[in-house]
Specification:
Helix content: 40-55%
Organism: Flavobacterium suaedae
Number of domains: 1
Protein name: DNA-directed RNA polymerase subunit omega
Keywords: DNA-directed RNA polymerase, Transcription
Low-confidence stretches: none
Mean pLDDT: 86
Largest sheet: none
Shape: elongated
Radius of gyration: 18 Å
Distance between the termini: 28 Å
Pfam family, one: RNA_pol_Rpb6
InterPro entries: Pol_omega/Rpo6/RPB6
């Protein structure tokens, strides 16, 4: 599981050195495919973690007329909104050689 609080990925758009991205595989398309798959995994992890945290503060009503603003849920949501996007986290992991992959035969 990725530690989101320690992630150093940029929140804004960044230009990367293409040769550094493709260096491990020798093929930019293969590298991007691996990074995209890792970004999907990270996105799933983040979504699961967010849902679990929001469930901790959930209040259930049978009435549709009563909608409560739960401050804890709002704060948790704001924290996750400010995090780097999954693709940025995946590129960071790729450049730090933290992603393992196997070539298909």
């Amino acid at each position: 599981m990725i530690d989101l609080k320690k992630a150093q990925a940029p929140v804004n758009t960044v230009t990367y050195n293409r040769s550094k991205i493709e260096e491990p595989t020798g093929n930019i398309y293969e590298a991007i495919t691996i990074i995209a798959k890792r970004a999907g995994q990270i996105n799933t992890e983040i979504k699961k973690e967010l849902i679990e945290k929001l469930e901790e503060f959930a209040t259930y009503n049978d009435s549709l007329e009563e909608i409560f603003e739960n401050k804890e849920q709002i704060e948790v949501s704001k924290f996750y909104e400010k995090l780097p996007k999954p693709h940025a986290l995946a590129v960071e992991e790729w450049l730090e050689e933290k992603v393992s992959y196997k070539k298909a035969k």
